[in-house]
Each structure stands twice: as C-alpha cells, then as structure tokens.
Specification:
Number of domains of chain A: 1
Distance between the termini of chain A: 24 Å
Number of strands of chain A: 0
CATH architecture of the largest domain in chain B: Orthogonal Bundle
Structural class of chain B: alpha+beta
Number of helices of chain A: 14
Strand content of chain A: under 5%
Oligomer: heterodimer
Distance between the termini of chain B: 34 Å
CATH superfamily of the largest domain in chain B: Cytochrome-c3 Hydrogenase, chain B
Number of helices of chain B: 18
Radius of gyration of chain B: 23 Å
Number of domains of chain B: 2
C-alpha cells in the first residue's frame, strides 16, 4: 500500500534543510490551507452535479445536459452566477451577526473536512481525540444557522432556525452515541488508529450486530444533522420558503449551499471512517491474493469511493421520502432513536467485554 | 313539489312563489328571512342542509340575494329563495352564516360586490377587493372610472380590523368594530407569493409555537371580475372564461356553462357530442387528480412522486392537444356541442392511457401512499367531520373524503352519466389522507367510464344547429356539474337580450378555502400546507 507519508515527510525535510523550523511550519500550513480550500471547492462542485444527476435519474429526467458534455460544466456556470450576484443588505437585520453567520457555518465544515483521513499518510491533524474533535466542531455549524435565522429579522427564518436548532441538537446525541459505540469497540478516538485497526476487517463486519445497528443509527442521525430530506424541515421550501437562509443572497447564500453539500460529504466520510474502514481497502482474512489486489487500488480512491457511496444512500433518502413534521421528528429522536442508541452502546460494551466479535 | 309549497306557506304565510324558472322559487320578505331559513334547515319535513349557492343580484330597482338550497336527504332537489333588501341605497339582509357556515365567505363576496350588509355576520370585510376600494363593482350603476380607484401604491392599512352589523332588540342596526387577530398574536404571513399556496393565495396564520390557532384567508390577488365582464359580452363570447377559472376542470366548467345555456334555449344535444363531452370531462378529472397527487407529494417534500404524477398527466394533455389544439384552456365545448371532431388517434390514445393507469397507480401507492412518513403526515390531519363538510358545502373529493355522498354525477345526474356504470368513491377517514385516497380511487373510476365509452362513441353530428346570435328568454337558470374539485354551478339571469343580465359562477374551491380555518386550527404550521394540498383548491377558481 503506497504511503503518502513518504512524500510529505520528504517535503518537510527539504524545507527544514534550507530554512528555520518556524518558517517551514508556516509554509506547510499555507500549502495545506490552500489544498483544503481547493478540495473543498472541487468536492462541492462535484457534489452539486452528483446530486442533480442522481435526482434526475430518480425522477425519469436527464438533469443538466446543455453546458458541456452531459452538463459537466453546469456547476461552474452556477458557481460563477452565485459569485457575481449582488449581496443584498436588508433593513432591520442585525448587520454583524447576519454577516458572521455564514462564516461560522463554512468554518465548521472546513475544519471538519481537514480532520478526515484522506489516504494512507494523507492526514492533516492526527489528534488522539480526533473523532471527538470532529463532533465538537460540527456543533459550531448549528450556531451559524441559529444566528442566521435570528439576525435576518424574518418570521420564516426564525421558525427555520428554531426547528434547525431543536433538530440538530437532538440528533447530535444519537450521532454521538453511534460514534461512541465504535469508540468503545476500537478503544481509541485517534483517527489514524481507527483506520489501522480495520486492516483485517472493517468495523461493520468485525463488530457485527451492534456495529450494524450503530451504522443505521448513524446514517439516520447524519441525514438529520445535514438537514437533508426527509429531515429538511429547517429549510422546508414548501412551508418556510428557504428556512434560515431565506434572506441571504449571492455568495453568502452560496456559503450555506456549499456547506450543506460539504457536510454531506463529511458525514459520509466519517461514516466510512467509523464503519467502512476509512481509506483501508477491503481485506478478507485468509485471502492473501485478493487482499494484495485490493491494495493496488490507491487509498484515496477507497476513501472517496466509500464516501460517495454513503452519500448516494443519503441522497436516495431525500428523493424518495416525504418530509416529516417537527413533532414527529423530535418524537422519533427522543422516543426511539436515542433509547436504541443507548441500548446499543451497552450492547456494544457487553460484546467487547465478552469478546463476542471477530 | 306541491307538498313543499304547502309546508313553506304554513311556516311563513308571507312567502310567494315565482313562476317560470327551472327550480321551485320562493320570495321571502327580508324581515322574515332568518326565521324562515332556520325553519328550512331545522324542519325535518324540509331538511335543507346544504346551501348550494349564494348569488348577489341587482335588479336595478332593488338589490338582493338568490339563495339555492338543497336537501341531501330528499333527493337533492333545488329550492331557490329570493330575498330583496329594503333600501337599495343602504341595503341590509340578515345573515344565514349561523345556519350554513358556507355563507361566511359567500356573503362576504356579496357584500364586496353589491354592498349588501349582512346583519349579525361576524366578519363583514371585503372578500376580494381592498378595504379602501370605492364602490361595489357588480352593481349596475357602478362607476368604473379609473380615477375613483387609482392603482394603489401603498400597503393596505386596516387589514386587521373588521366589523359586524348587529341588530338590537328594537331592530336598530349598529356597526360593531372587531379585530381579526389580537394584538399579542404572532401572525405568520403565507403568500401571496409562496411556493405552496398553489397560486396567488395569501393566508395569515396566527401561531403559538408551531401550532396554528387561526387562519385568515386573504383573497383576490388575481380576481379578474369575470362575472362583470360576462355582462357586456354575448353568450358565445363568455364561454372561454370558464376554462380560465379552475383550469384543472376546464372541460367540466365549460360543459356546465354550455349546458346551462342549452337548458335555457331548450336545445337538444347530439348523442356524439354528449359522449365526447363526458369523455373529455373524465380525462380532465384524471389529469386534475394526477396533478393533485403530484402536488400533495411535493408539498410534503416527496419531489420524485410529483414527477411520476406529471409523467402520466403529460399523456392526458397530449390527448387534449391532438383533439382540442391546446394543453390548457382547451376552449372545446361550445353551445350545442363541441367545436371540433375527435382526432383519429383519440381512441387509441385513450386506450393506451387506460391500459397503463392501473399499473402506474400501483407505483404511486408504493412510492407515496404506503410510505409511513406520508401516512403520518396525512392521517388525522385536517379533520373535517361530515356535519362540517355538509355545513360548509365542501363537495367533490374533499367532501367525499368525509364520507358525504355528494357526487353530482350520481345525486343529480346530467348528460349521459345516468347510463354509465361507475361507483361514487367514499372514504370514512374525514382527514387529509381520506381526501387524497378519494382522488386516487376516482382515477380508477374515471378510467372505468372511459373504458365503457371509448368503443361506443356514436357517429353523427358533433353539435346542434345554433343560431348565429344566441338569445335566451327572460328568466334565470341554475345548472350544476361535478368538476374535478366539487360541484360547479352556473347561474344565468337573462333579460332577453344577447348579453346575459347576470352570470354567477359557484366555484367549489371558494368553499374549500373557506374551510381552511376550521381544518387548520390546532394543527401545526407544516400541516397548513398539507391540508391545503389535500383540499386541493385552485386559486383562479376562487378569484373568478
């Protein structure tokens, strides 16, 4: 398996050879920042097209076809349109918070993106509490949404923000509990170690019953966390026009739009990290030849492939199911999902204690 | 008929009976009207439980209202009651909105257009026009000078204020101001430009948290004054307006208007035209219910189901396009028959549609009707018990969802419906899901009707001989058909000239929107959209 760490450490030594350490770190930080932002944009563009094409196929349509071959350039056209649109400032809004809110949302998703294990050796920060850090940072996004709804001084946005706050805070619990079940299983929160441990079998296979339950809970809670259908009430267009971002225009709206798609990628990435082995290829114990063939596929392809597959499932939900109502949404979380997640955590602990796993 | 006359005379000796109309007509003095109306409703021998139509009238020397009443228990016979206000300059009539709730909105419309104030009506605001509008447009002496009512550039100010006219013990009438919403109510405005109001409709909803406590319907954003326009046009010229009211019931509406004119002329319609009309009506119903399915799904966020509905609807529209030359506003029925013969492909296309529909309906049920989320969103939401449906005159699929047998095609058959074999679809749920399911099952029934007719279209003329200038004898007529959304009625009053003296369209959607407040109270704000989708009103039908 190719280790990207060789390249990065070679580059680090090259810099250290001709400059003091602090300068090398600054240069590395700048390069990484640019790379992350670049990946962010490219992924967002890809996801917009991905979703549009998928939803078109679900709906007996073709989707965008006119700009470029199979509409491939459509997203670039859309992005330029959003960039050159006027940012309308409104009377009666809280100017500072109104402008701050989209940056909070986009910051939280950029930071989460930076924590993901992209490939073997392709990881930016290696914390011992990596997965905990991701869940913590994701909560900042809620703040941005609440502020957006509040500062817009509009009844629709306020209702949207209230719904969003209630929804995201509630579903974060199930999300956290599902992740916690895997942390119990792996015994670590370090992302690098989590991936390494799945060398022999992905957690969803080795942890079998509780891991599968945790995976299902995670997928449901993640759909709600990203405000996607059937849990897209905060921006339920048929009730609240566009929910919390009704009053945003131009690129400030674009930030919400991008963050929404990137959050979809991030929750899929975390799912692939926690359950499907992150960048780890599919290894079946005992099948050495098969495992070696799998190793030839680059680790970054594994990671992206798994993430896109999970995103596909979440997109599939959105275009199939109707939207739930706010009371049903909260009842589902507090009465069913969270108790099940708690019970599953105990089940996982029992499985680990008694060694009932592969 | 004579029995009823005797009973009516015994209740109120002052009533007189008018001759020469298509229904039994009673003329009641204004001061006796409310007591008489209460008897009409409560007397078990009469039992007039449905107020079918309220038609404001200006007879030049006086103004008044024509009420059309129906008894569901006694065979749906119509009774018309003429009430004349005493003073033309300052007309008052007692309200019947306490007896038939449907009058709450209907009387506001009459107040708006004729200036007749209804005593004891709880909310005497204009229905369609702005509160600062000068004059009452449907009066014959209305001054249409644009300088009197310039295009307003400012917002409507006193939209929260209402009033009612209360009569005290001595018979003196006093204006009592009122408020639509209290000062501390949190009012969310929905519309007129909103994705889910299905047109230019505005609701003002008072909410407590996410629970709706009151809904105020603000209508009239696209009112075109069709009834006023009709008065200055000849009969063949007014036909096309009906296609532009409920555009999802274009054929049925126009069928109704043509049938009403034909009834007045005493015209015999060729059999071929009758069959074509019924087939077009049923195709229109399928298309309308498919749209209703799609829009309900979309309002609930299931966008894919919406496209499935539209895929089949497209096929229906293609059939229309081939024969009528248009996909909307078909302008197909004319006085005496239909305007053009069927396209050679018509039978083949209709058969193709009937063949695929059962399978496609199954698909809709799989993707939407049986979905647990959809069921949770629709079941038990927007309850409308049968008594309320009757009282608010909610006909069509929405009424039948409340288990009220109100299909005009069955209860008062017109055209060739009495010869056809089809079932009236009824559901007992009284909720949004029942209304939705009625529509889905009605598609099957419409297919059944089409299957019976498609191989039996008789040869012959497609329209009867009609004089170039159509003139109706002096009198008035009321005709009703089952449009896609309920009983659609046309009232024509003729003074013998080539223009109608007064035309009134009794639209089902106006009643549907009138029940929004009742259905939405206590439900959540998200349900307001669901209830609207399941009631399935079309705005141009309200704003005629």
């Amino acid at each position: 398996m190719f280790d990207f760490g060789k390249w990065t450490s070679a580059f680090n030594e090259l810099l250290l050879g001709c400059m003091p350490e602090w300068l090398a770190v600054v240069i590395e930080c700048v390069i990484i920042g640019v790379l992350v932002l670049g990946a962010y944009t490219v992924l967002a563009l890809f996801y917009i097209l991905y979703e549009r094409k998928l939803c078109a196929w679900f709906q007996c349509r073709l989707g965008p076809m006119r700009v470029g071959k199979w509409g491939l350039l459509q997203v670039f056209a859309d992005m330029f349109k959003i960039l050159i649109k006027e940012i309308i400032s409104l009377k009666g809004t809280d100017k500072f918070l109104f402008k701050l809110a989209p940056y909070l949302v986009i910051t939280s998703s950029v930071v989460m993106l930076a924590c993901l294990p992209w490939g073997n050796g392709l990881q930016i920060i290696n914390y011992n509490i990596g997965i905990f850090f991701i869940t913590a940072v994701s909560s900042i996004g809620v703040l941005g949404i609440l502020l957006a709804g509040w500062s817009s001084n509009n009844k629709y946005t306020l209702i949207g923000a209230m719904r969003s706050g209630a929804q995201m805070v509630s579903y974060e619990i199930s999300l956290g509990l599902a992740i916690l079940a895997i942390v119990v299983f792996a015994g670590t929160m370090n992302i690098q170690e989590l991936v390494e441990q799945q060398n022999h079998a992905w957690f969803i296979f080795s942890g079998h019953i509780p891991a599968i339950i945790a995976f299902l809970i995670y997928i449901i809670a993640a759909t709600a966390e990203t405000n996607r259908g059937p849990f897209d009430l905060p921006e339920a267009e048929h009730e609240l026009v566009a929910g919390y971002h009704t009053e945003y225009s131009g690129i400030t709206f674009g930030f919400y739009y991008l963050a929404e798609y990137l959050n979809l990628f991030i929750v899929s990435g975390v799912a692939s990290l926690m359950f499907l082995g992150g960048w780890m290829p599919l290894h079946i114990p005992g099948w050495e030849a098969f495992n070696n063939i799998m190793n030839y596929i680059p680790s970054i392809v594994w990671f992206l492939g798994k993430s896109f597959f999970i995103s596909f499932i979440i997109i599939w939900f959105k275009w199939t199911f109707p939207r739930v109502r706010i009371d049903q949404l909260l009842a589902f979380e507090w009465k069913y999902l969270m108790p099940v997640a708690l019970a599953n955590l105990i089940l996982m602990a029992v499985f680990v204690a008694l060694g009932w796993h592969f | 008929m004579s029995d009823i006359k005797e009973i009516l005379s015994s209740i109120c000796p002052e009533v007189t009976f008018a001759e020469g109309t298509d229904t039994l007509e009673v003329v009641v003095p204004e001061e006796k009207w409310h007591d008489f109306a209460a008897q009409l409703k409560n007397d078990k021998r009469l039992d007039f439980d449905v107020l079918t139509a309220v038609v404001g009238m200006d007879w030049k020397e006086s103004v008044g209202v024509m009420y059309y009443l129906t008894s569901t228990a006694r065979g749906w016979d119509l009774l018309s009651v003429k009430v004349v206000a005493k003073d033309r300059k300052d007309p008052y009539i007692h309200t019947v909105s306490d007896l038939w709730k449907v009058a709450l909105f209907q009387e506001r419309e009459v107040f708006d257009f004729f200036g007749i104030k209804f005593i004891n009506h709880p909310d005497m605001r204009r229905m369609f026009l702005r509160n600062d509008w000068k004059g009452n447009p449907l009066l014959k002496d209305y001054d249409a000078n644009p300088e009197l009512n310039p295009i307003p550039l400012d917002d409507e100010k006193d939209e929260d204020n209402t009033c009612s006219y209360v009569e005290d013990a001595k018979g003196k009438i006093k204006k009592v101001p009122g408020l639509v919403f209290g000062k501390d109510e949190y009012v969310v405005n929905i519309g007129p430009q909103h994705p889910s109001t299905h047109g230019v409709m505005r609701f003002r909803a008072a909410i407590d948290g996410e629970t709706v406590t009151k809904v105020d319907v603000v209508s009239g954003y696209i009112h075109r004054g069709i009834e006023k326009m009709c008065e200055s046009l000849g009969y063949p010229q007014i036909l096309h307006f009906t296609d532009r009211m409920d555009y999802m019931s274009a054929h049925q509406n126009r069928h109704c208007l043509c049938a009403c004119i034909e009834k007045a002329m005493g015209l015999e319609i060729p059999r071929r035209a009758q069959v074509i009309r019924v087939m077009m009506d049923e195709l229109m119903r399928i298309s309308s219910h498919l749209l209703a399915f799609g829009c309900t799904a979309m309002d609930l966020g299931a966008t894919t189901a919406f496209f499935y509905g539209f895929r089949e609807r497209e096929q229906v529209l293609d059939i229309f396009e081939k024969t009528c030359g248009a996909r909307m506003s078909m302008n197909y029925n004319v006085i005496g028959g239909v305007i053009a013969d069927l396209h050679p492909d018509f039978c083949k296309d209709v058969k193709a549609l009937i063949d695929i529909m059962p399978e496609r309906l199954k698909e809709y049920h799989t993707v939407f009707s049986k979905n647990i989320i959809a069921k949770n969103r629709l079941k038990g939401v927007g309850m409308l018990p049968k008594e309320d449906a009757v009282n608010y005159a909610i006909t069509g699929p929405s009424g039948r969802g409340s288990n009220w047998s109100c299909d005009t095609r069955k209860v008062r058959p017109y055209s060739i419906y009495s010869e056809l074999d089809f079932n009236e679809v009824l559901e007992t749920g009284c909720d949004s899901y029942a209304r939705y399911m009625v529509r889905m099952r009605e598609i099957e029934e419409s297919c059944k009707i089409l299957a019976q007719l498609v191989d039996n279209i008789p040869e012959g003329e497609i329209r009867a001989q009609v004089p170039k200038i159509v003139k109706l004898p002096v009198g008035h007529w009321y005709h009703q058909v089952e449009a896609s959304r309920g009983a659609f009625g046309v009232y024509i009053e003729s003074d013998g000239t080539k223009n109608p003296y007064r035309v009134h369209f009794q639209s089902p959607c106006f009643n549907l929107v009138g029940v929004m407040d009742l259905c939405c109270r206590g439900n959540m704000i998200a349900d307001l959209i669901t209830i609207g989708a399941a009631l399935d009103f079309v705005i141009p039908d309200i704003d005629r």
